[in-house]
Amino acid sequence: MKSSVMNTYLRQHVEFTHGRGAWLYDAAGKAYLDGLSGIAVCGLGHAHPAVTQAIADQAGSLLHASNLFEIGVQAELADALCRVSGMAGVFFGNSGAEANEAAIKMARLYGHSRDVHTPSIVVMDAAFHGRTMATLTASGNRKIQTGFEPLVAGFVRAPYGDMGALENIAQNNNQVVAVMLEPIQGEAGIRMPPAGYLAEVRRLCDARGWLMILDEVQTGNGRTGSFFLYQQEGIQPDIVTTAKGLGNGVPIGACLAAASAADIFQPGNHGSTFGGNPLACRAALTVVREIEALGPRAQVLGERFVERLRQGLRGLEAVRDIRGRGLMVGIELAGDCSALVAQGLAAGVVINVTAGSVMRLLPPLIMSDEEIDLLADRVISLISAHDAALTGRAATTAAL
Question: Of residues 34, 91, 92, 215, which has the active-site annotation?
Answer without folding.
Answer: 215
